[in-house]
């Protein structure tokens, strides 16, 4: 069955069937359709993703039922992982931004958990620009917001997903500015929550914080080539000056001795 789904000759037919699911009257069918797209994205061409998959996901992401909208989050994440076309990625990034910023989703706990879970999965594989300019700053905001969550169950759900996300992203190359401005603030907020909801992980988060602080505070290597060159120049310059002076003095001594010798020779033949 899986091989038939992955067969390119069946993609058009499968997408047509899935579109029927997108516009189905049952919210459960529409939600299931969104989840199926997550699997399908890995096997179809980018042209089909652009022309058929992303439009279908955007339609589902504006569904009246919040459960249907949430079902699209993992699929959008899979698009980020598997697509390189700028136009497609921009549409997906815009949809993620809508999920994060629209006041309609402000209290949608399930959506936030799904978003963090998706960022944890796709962050290490996404383009650095998306990870650095969107994922890391947004995770820091989520971590800070979670500090003020009074519902302990929700606080724990978000904290554990944040821990998974930060653990995954800690393996990526992150520049010092981002570490200072996004990674460390988010981790410090997470440590505060872990002390309350998962004390057994607080020390692990603290260790990760210490590692990143060390990276930021580590002294940069000196430009030894410049120092060495200057030292060599100074030594060779001084040596050259000394050698020059010594040689001039030697030549002067030889000249003086030569003059003295000629005078002595001349005096031998001088008549008394």
Automatic annotation (TrEMBL):
Gene3D superfamilies: Leucine-rich Repeat Variant. GO terms for biological process: intracellular cholesterol transport. GO terms for cellular component: recycling endosome; trans-Golgi network. HEAT repeats lie at residues 53-91. InterPro entries: ARM-like, ARM-type_fold, HEAT_type_2, RELCH. This is LisH domain and HEAT repeat-containing protein KIAA1468 homolog. The gene is LOC106158334.
């Amino acid at each position: 069955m899986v091989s038939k789904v992955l067969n390119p000759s069946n993609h058009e037919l499968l997408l047509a069937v899935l579109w029927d699911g997108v516009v189905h009257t049952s919210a459960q069918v529409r939600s299931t359709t969104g989840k199926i797209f997550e699997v399908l994205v890995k096997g179809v061409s980018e042209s089909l993703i652009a022309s058929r998959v992303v439009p279908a996901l955007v339609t589902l992401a504006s569904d009246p039922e919040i459960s249907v909208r949430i079902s699209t989050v993992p699929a959008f994440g899979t698009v980020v992982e598997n697509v390189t076309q700028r136009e497609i990625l921009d549409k997906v990034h815009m949809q993620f931004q809508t999920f994060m910023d629209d006041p309609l989703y402000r209290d949608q706990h399930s959506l936030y958990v799904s978003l963090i879970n998706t960022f944890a999965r796709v962050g290490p594989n996404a383009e650095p620009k998306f990870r650095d300019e969107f994922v890391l700053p947004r995770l820091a905001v989520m971590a800070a917001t979670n500090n003020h969550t009074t519902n302990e169950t929700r606080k724990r759900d978000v904290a554990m997903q944040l821990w998974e996300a930060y653990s995954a992203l800690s393996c990526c190359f992150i520049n010092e500015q981002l570490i200072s401005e996004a990674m460390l603030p988010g981790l410090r907020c997470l440590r505060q929550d872990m002390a309350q909801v998962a004390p057994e992980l607080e020390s692990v988060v603290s260790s990760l914080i210490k590692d990143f602080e060390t990276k930021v505070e580590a002294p940069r290597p000196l430009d030894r080539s410049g120092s060495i060159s200057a030292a060599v120049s100074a030594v060779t310059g001084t040596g050259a000056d000394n050698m020059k002076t010594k040689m001039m003095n030697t030549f002067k001594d030889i000249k003086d001795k030569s003059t003295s010798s000629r005078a002595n020779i001349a005096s031998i033949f001088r008549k008394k």
